[in-house]
Amino acid sequence: MKIALIGYGKMGKAIDAIATAKGHEVILRIDHDSQHLLDKEHLGQADVAIEFTTPETAYHNIQKCFEANVPVVSGTTGWLEKLPEVNALCEKGHHAFLHATNFSIGVNIFFEVNKKLAALMAAQPQYNVWMEEIHHTQKKDAPSGTAITLAEQLLASVDRKKGWVNDETQQADMLSIISKRIDPAPGTHTIHYSSPIDDITITHTAHSREGFAAGAVVAAEWLKGKAGVFTMRDVLNL
Ligand SMILES: NC(=O)C1=CN([C@@H]2O[C@H](COP(=O)(O)OP(=O)(O)OC[C@H]3O[C@@H](n4cnc5c(N)ncnc54)[C@H](OP(=O)(O)O)[C@@H]3O)[C@@H](O)[C@H]2O)C=CC1
Ligand SMILES: O=C(O)C1=N[C@H](C(=O)O)C[C@H](O)C1
């Protein structure tokens, strides 16, 4: 498969290594200073584009992929208020788009555990619940996209919480997401349920970026030749 990498930082380099080792050809490595390659002449040569950039640039990069009619896998977080608009553009133009806040198999299993535990806790108001996410100090956004996904899953079941806030809070109806930035943390997410009688805590800890990168390559392999809007749940058949 011919792959265009949009964003060649920590994730772009990790994906390059895994994709190349699997026998794919990385034909473009587009970074901040190679924006001229974001056109049909160049992008159109790829089977799939994989985009891991910044909250400020993901939307534009994805649009350029649609214009070049190249399927795009995006993992960039911190811009997802625009996701509904991107999904609509994809459907309207019969493009192919797959986004995930976290591409690791472990976190996608953790998502399923989170939803099940939240459903069980819906009828147990004696438990308070809050979250914590820990990442490296270079991370631009907070809370993490993964944490927001976890919070949205939890809020869909636990209706004693009306929303989330990225800080400690004394508001009983708000879900607190505490963000910590500690090097070299690749990504740790914890959900705490606490009652006067006991605590239940679930945690996912990434040891490196390998799981994110490997999952993104699998998603790109899955997306090739398809049209529509997809998530990692489609790839993993969850
Ligand atoms: N979904 C998932 O599984 C995961 C998602 N992520 C997310 O991916 C994103 C990137 O993470 P990470 O790789 O660690 O970040 P890095 O900062 O290491 O890499 C981002 C790269 O994108 C480049 N860039 C900036 N603007 C553009 C642009 N317009 N076009 C092309 N490249 C550009 C940056 O260049 P420069 O430095 O010159 O600005 C940098 O090299 C973040 O949003 C992060 O949250 C991270 C890991 C897993
Ligand atoms: O910036 C990172 O590193 C990560 N970002 C993603 C997120 O915001 O959830 C995924 C992973 O936690 C690593």
From TrEMBL:
Positions of the Dihydrodipicolinate reductase C-terminal domain: 106-236
Transmembrane segments: none
Organism: Chitinophaga eiseniae
Example GO molecular function: 4-hydroxy-tetrahydrodipicolinate reductase
Residue ranges of domain Dihydrodipicolinate reductase N-terminal in the record: 1-103
One GO BP: lysine biosynthetic process via diaminopimelate
Taxonomic path: Bacteria, Pseudomonadati, Bacteroidota, Chitinophagia, Chitinophagales
Catalyses which reaction(s): (S)-2,3,4,5-tetrahydrodipicolinate + NAD(+) + H2O = (2S,4S)-4-hydroxy-2,3,4,5-tetrahydrodipicolinate + NADH + H(+); (S)-2,3,4,5-tetrahydrodipicolinate + NADP(+) + H2O = (2S,4S)-4-hydroxy-2,3,4,5-tetrahydrodipicolinate + NADPH + H(+)
Uppermost EC category: oxidoreductase
Keywords: Amino-acid biosynthesis, Diaminopimelate biosynthesis, Lysine biosynthesis, NAD, NADP, Oxidoreductase
Family recorded in the similarity comment: Belongs to the DapB family.
Annotated protein name in UniProt: 4-hydroxy-tetrahydrodipicolinate reductase
Record bears the keyword Signal: no
Annotated metabolic or biological route of this protein: Amino-acid biosynthesis; L-lysine biosynthesis via DAP pathway; (S)-tetrahydrodipicolinate from L-aspartate: step 4/4
Entry annotated with the keyword NADP: yes
GO cellular component: cytosol
